[in-house]
Amino acid sequence: MKKSEALQAIYRDKIPPLDDVTLHEIKILPGEDTIITIKIDITTLPRELPKKWQANEITTVQLTFDLIRARIEKFDLDSPVSTVNRVSILEDSGSKIMTLASSSDAQVLVIRSSWIYLQSVSAYQNA
Q1: 22 vs 37: which has the higher pLDDT
Q2: Could you name the domain of life of the organism this protein comes from (predicted)?
Q3: Nearest Cα to 117, choosing from 69, 85, 71?
Q4: What angle do CA 95, 99, 101 make, to 5 degrees?
Q5: Is the separation of the CB atoms in 83 and 101 below 8 Å?
Q6: Rounded to whole angstroms, how far apart are CA atoms 118 and 112?
Q7: In whole angstroms, what is the distance from residue 41 CA to residue 71 CA?
Q8: What is the pTM of this model?
Q9: Quick one: which H or E segment has residue 92?
Q10: Which letter does DSSP use for residue 2 in this model?
Q11: How many of the other CB atoms lie within 10 Å of CB of 52?
Q12: Which residues of 87-122 are buried (b: 16+ CB within 10 A; e: fewer)?
């Protein structure tokens, strides 16, 4: 994953696994180099919160990923995407593969791309 410095700066050496997440948004920008943006929410907070986050009493960290030159390989419409709670990122023959799975490990969405970038790390108070 490219541009993960922001995540490393916030979490330091304790970057949380993406196995207790909530899928927040999927956005597809079609074109020659299709871009799929995935937003996920995690509730694992860093040990030391940035001052701005402390002031806002955040409870949720939101990660936004851009998958460039992306192709959807699987989208299980029989499983509601709201059931996604685990994200894995693997490399296969030069491609990056992001898999979103349910708590029962059923693949809900599989995307193959040339690059995966961590576009942003933000936080908010989830009521």
Answers
A1: 37
A2: Bacteria
A3: 69
A4: 170
A5: no
A6: 16
A7: 23
A8: 0.88
A9: strand 84-92
A10: B
A11: 9
A12: beeeeeeebbbbbbbbeeeebbbbbbbebbbbeebe
Cα 127 to Cα 17: distance, rounded to the nearest angstrom? 23
Instruction: Give the mean model confidence (pLDDT) for residues 99-123.
Output: 91
With 0-12 CB in 10 A as exposed, 13-18 as middle and 19+ as buried, what is 34?
middle
Tokens of 32: 């020659």
User: How do residues 37-95 score in pLDDT, each as one tens digit?
Assistant: 999 999 889 988 888 888 888 999 999 999 999 999 998 877 666 667 889 999 999 99
**Token digits for 104?**
């029962």
Instruction: Dig out the tokens for 78 from the structure.
Output: 């029989």
Helix (H) or strand (E) holding 103: none
Q: How many angstroms separate the CA atoms of 85 and 65, rounded?
A: 16
Position 35 scores a pLDDT of 98
CA 83 to chain centre: 15
One-letter amino acid for residue 18 of the chain: L
25/5 Cα distance (integer angstroms): 22
Residue given tokens 């995307």 in the structure block:
111
